Amino acid sequence: MDLEPWLHFVHVTGAVVWVGGGVVLSVIGQRVRRSGDATLLAEFARTLSYVGLRVFTPAVVVVLVTGVWLVFAEESGNFTQLWVVLALAAFAVAFLIGAVYLSRSAIRLERVMSAPTPDIAAARDALGRWMLGYGVVLAVLVFALWDMVFKPGT
User: Fold this and answer.
1) Domain segments of the chain as ranges
2) Number of C-beta neighbours around residue 94 at 10 A
3) In Å, how far from its chain's centre is CA 77?
4) N or C: which end of the chain has fewer CB within 10 A?
5) Is this structure's pTM higher than 0.85?
6) pLDDT tier at 133, thresholds 50, 70, 90
7) Residue 80 burial class via C-beta count within 10 angstroms: exposed 0-12, middle 13-18, buried 19 and up
8) Do residues 140 and 31 lie in contact, with contact meaning Cβ atoms separated by under 8 Å?
């Protein structure tokens, strides 16, 4: 039995979880931000931390590990192919935005909402910043999906 189709399946599944989860969180975040409801803002803040650690982090690791494994599994195993370089660059950009910017925005939102008297304007601002950052991540991930499908340079 060939391992490559299974690696590809796991790789695509990780990408679907990462992209699809981000789209869903962004839509819910927009709704929560517009509502200005303190209870919804607090719950969404807790949800970001929960989902980030339990869903996005494993999905990101799966995408990276299986992607690298798939390149090694190719006959050429060449990391200098344009589509591989673009994929790794997109991964790095999305990962760095998530690890540095999005995590800080989510932590700020959670801190604001866990204060004895939450500042709703500051919470909406923090959520808006998170959504802007995740919008950039989603654009990068859509580019990565395009790159994976069309494999430019091959």
Assistant:
1) 4-150
2) 25
3) 26
4) N
5) yes
6) very high
7) exposed
8) no
pLDDT(77) > 90: no
Question: Contact, 5 vs 73, CB < 8 A?
Answer: no
Q: Which residues contact 55 (CB under 8 A, 6 or more apart)?
A: 17, 21
Q: How many residues does the chain have?
A: 154
Report the alpha-carbon distance of residue 4 to residue 63 in Å, rounded. Answer: 14
Mean pLDDT (the chain, rounded): 95
| pLDDT (tens digit per residue) in 81-132 | 999 999 999 999 999 999 999 999 999 999 999 999 999 999 999 999 999 9
HEC string for the chain: CCCHHHHHHHHHHHHHHHHHHHHHHHHHHHHHHHHCCHHHHHHHHHHHHHHHHHHHHHHHHHHHHHHHHHHHHCCCCCCCCHHHHHHHHHHHHHHHHHHHHHHHHHHHHHHHHHCCCCCHHHHHHHHHHHHHHHHHHHHHHHHHHHHHHHCCCC
Q: Give me 12's structure tokens.
A: 């695509």
